[in-house]
Amino acid sequence: MNRRITMATALALTAGLTLAGCGGGDDGAPKLKVSGAYMPQPVTQDMAGAFLVVENTGESADKLTSVTSDLSKDITIHKTVGSKMEEVPSLNVPAGGELTLARGGNHLMFMGLKNKPAEGDTVTIELHFAHADPITVDVPVKSVSYAPKK
User: What are φ and ψ of residue 6, in 5° steps?
Assistant: First the structure.
C-alpha cells in the first residue's frame, strides 16, 4: 500500500512539474508592441528615415530582421556608433526591454521612394522579426524638425 501511495505521489509531482514547465505554451515567447513611430517629412524623393520603439514584455529576446512597405522596395536597418551609421542585418529586441530607433541613433532608411510623403500623411510599414509574427505599423509623417517629447 505504501508503495502505491509513493508511486502515485511521484507521478502527481512529475505531472505537476511538467505542466508548470509548459507555462501555457507561449509564456516564454517575445511579446512585442510598437509605439512612438514617426517619419520626418523627406526633403527629397531619394530617401527618408523612420523612428519608433519596439517594446518586448516577453521572457525571450527577438531581432528586428527586415522592414517592408509600399513606399520603397529598399528599406534598410541602420545602427549608429559614434557619428558613423552602418547598415546591419538585424537589431536586438531584448527580453523585458526595448529597441529604440531615434534620431542620431538606430533607425530605418527608405531609399528610392516611390512618392514623397508630405507632413500629415501616413506610411504603412511591416516589421519582421526572427521569432515574433510581423507587426504592421502606421507611421505618421511629421515636420522635418519634429522632435518627440520624452
Answer: -60, -45
Looking at the whole model, is its pTM more than 0.85?
no
What are the beta bridge partners of residue 34?
54
Overall size of the chain counted in residues? 150
Residues 16-61: tens digit of each pLDDT = 434 444 444 556 899 999 999 999 999 988 999 999 999 999 999 9
- Cα 149 to Cα 74, 102, 117, 129, 146: the distances in Å are 29, 12, 23, 27, 10
Give the integer Cα–Cα distance in Å for 56 and 30. Answer: 6
Q: Which of 129, 120, 122, 4 is nearest to 60 (CA)?
A: 129
Pull the grid cell for residue 46.
531619394
Amino acid at 139: V
Distance in angstroms (rounded) separating the CA atoms of residues 51 and 123 = 12
